[in-house]
Every structure is written in structure tokens, then in C-alpha cells.
Design goal:
alpha+beta; Rossmann fold; Elongation Factor Tu (Ef-tu), domain 3; 2 domains; seven-stranded mixed β-sheet; 17% helix; elongated
């Protein structure tokens, strides 16, 4: 028997309610041998940008063939499509609402299907409010158990997938302008500016009349002071040593960030 693949789950369901456990139950009824790993279930509700970033910064750390099921789904029950995508090293399952945009900007799509085959749902009579339980988790479990992706539904053209708009960074010789794409639970402000653009350079973040020096570690600044650095995800972020940068600097998702480079 072929060894089942690994599945990951990502959602905005939280852990107070039983929704995540129920999804895992739906997976176990299909194949209790599948290894299920939680990426996170504490994303801000309906925040597709947060889902996009967390998937982008996580998927590469898993073995070849991992099935990533993501359910941040403000359009559940509407005409939005339920999809499965095959990439060179992974499978993605979730709503067609742009939450996979970050990964798809870096990886080619080998195949794409709409999940239209009720044989691989939990039941043909699906809930209009819980596709994570009735469609996405079961389809992922079947896929992780060896069912060919083409069996899950009808093929769709990759170019028809919904893209989540996110402002790109702009680079000039002495500055890079980007935006905040994620805020983690510590209040760290993560930009969309790749850290390799400042590698080996002297740089700082300019916020109005404030200058936040770029350095290597959180502890490079005094406790309670802001610092800019390249985080483990590879992007420039703004943090406060043992504090909360979002609260202290009063910045939010999508804010414009300017990095200045010494020439």
C-alpha cells in the first residue's frame, strides 16, 4: 500500500470552537493514517492577505507531495470555485479567492481542477457554510491517500484563477518602497520587501520623522525601542525589542513602508 502523504491545515477558525477538530474527523474517517499538521487556525477572520503570507512562508518546509488545505473563505456558499492545484512539489486545496497567490507567484501550476466530483466530498448534500468539513478536508484526504487529482473534478485553466491584489515594492538606487503584508502575534510588521535587497548594505526604515535603523537581531536595540531587520521569512520587518511594533507605531495592514539605503 502506498504511504499516505502529509496534509497541512490552515484556517481562520480558531481553536475555541470544534470546527478544526471536525475537519480532522472528516479526514480520519477517510484515512486515519494520514499525518495532519496544523499550520495555524488563528488568522484574523476573513483575512486573505494573512492566509496568503502564511502559506507562502510555510509550504517550502514540507516534504514533496504534501497536501496543503487552506480554508479562509468569506465567499463560502457563493459561486466561488472550490479548487485543487498541483505544483512541482505540493498540492493546494481550498477556495478560489486568491489565498494561494503568493505561492503561485513563485511556483508553476502543473494541473488545476474544480472540486466538482461529489464522490470525494463528505456528502453530496454539503453545508453552505462549512465547505472545509464537507469538501476541502475530504478532497485533501483522498488526494493524500493516492486518489489522482484528475478524479476530484473537472480541469480548469490556471489563468482563470482569482489573484489577490497586493502592491509590489518599488526599488530605486537609494530607497525601496513597499507595503505591510502581514502582522504576527508579537506585533511585528512584516513588509513585502525581500531582505536580500539590503544584504551587505547600511539601511534604515523611514516613518514620517522617525528613523528605524536596520540591524540583525531583535536584541540589537534597547528594550522598548523599534528596530528593522530581515526576519526568518526572508522579508524586512519592523519590530520592538520585547514590545509590540503595531501598537507602538500605530501601523496596520497595507501601510506604505520606505527603506532608505546609504550610497
Amino acid at each position: 500500500m502506498k504511504t499516505p502523504k502529509i496534509m497541512t491545515l490552515l484556517s481562520d477558525f480558531g481553536t475555541t470552537d470544534p470546527y478544526v477538530g471536525v475537519m480532522k474527523g472528516a479526514i480520519a474517517r477517510i484515512n486515519p493514517s494520514v499525518t495532519v499538521i496544523d499550520l495555524t487556525h488563528d488568522l484574523p477572520p476573513q483575512n486573505l492577505q494573512a492566509a496568503r503570507f502564511c502559506l507562502l512562508s510555510s509550504y517550502a518546509y514540507f516534504p514533496q507531495g504534501t497536501v496543503h488545505v487552506a480554508v479562509v473563505d468569506p465567499g463560502v456558499g457563493s459561486s466561488r470555485r472550490a479548487i485543487a492545484l498541483q505544483l512541482p512539489g505540493a498540492f493546494l486545496i481550498g477556495p478560489d479567492n486568491g489565498l494561494f497567490s503568493g505561492i503561485l507567484a513563485q511556483e508553476p501550476i502543473l494541473a488545476a481542477v474544480e472540486l466538482t466530483n461529489p464522490r470525494y466530498w463528505r456528502t453530496p448534500d454539503v453545508s453552505q457554510t462549512f465547505h472545509g468539513r464537507d469538501i476541502f478536508a475530504p478532497a485533501g484526504a483522498h488526494l493524500a491517500s493516492g486518489v489522482p487529482m484528475a478524479e476530484l473534478g473537472r480541469a480548469i485553466a490556471p489563468e482563470t484563477l482569482v489573484q489577490l491584489p497586493l502592491a509590489d515594492y518599488r526599488q530605486e538606487p537609494d530607497r525601496i518602497q513597499g507595503t505591510l503584508q502581514y502582522i504576527d502575534r508579537f506585533g511585528n510588521l512584516i513588509t513585502n520587501i525581500p531582505g536580500d535587497l539590503v544584504s551587505g548594505k547600511s539601511w534604515f526604515v523611514k516613518l514620517a520623522d522617525q528613523k528605524i535603523q536596520g540591524d540583525r537581531t531583535y536584541a540589537s536595540s534597547p528594550v522598548g525601542s523599534a528596530i528593522a531587520l530581515v526576519g526568518s521569512h526572508g522579508y524586512i520587518e519592523i519590530a520592538v525589542n520585547q514590545g509590540n511594533a503595531q501598537q507602538q507605531l500605530q501601523l496596520d495592514w497595507g501601510a506604505t513602508i520606505q527603506v532608505m539605503i546609504a550610497l
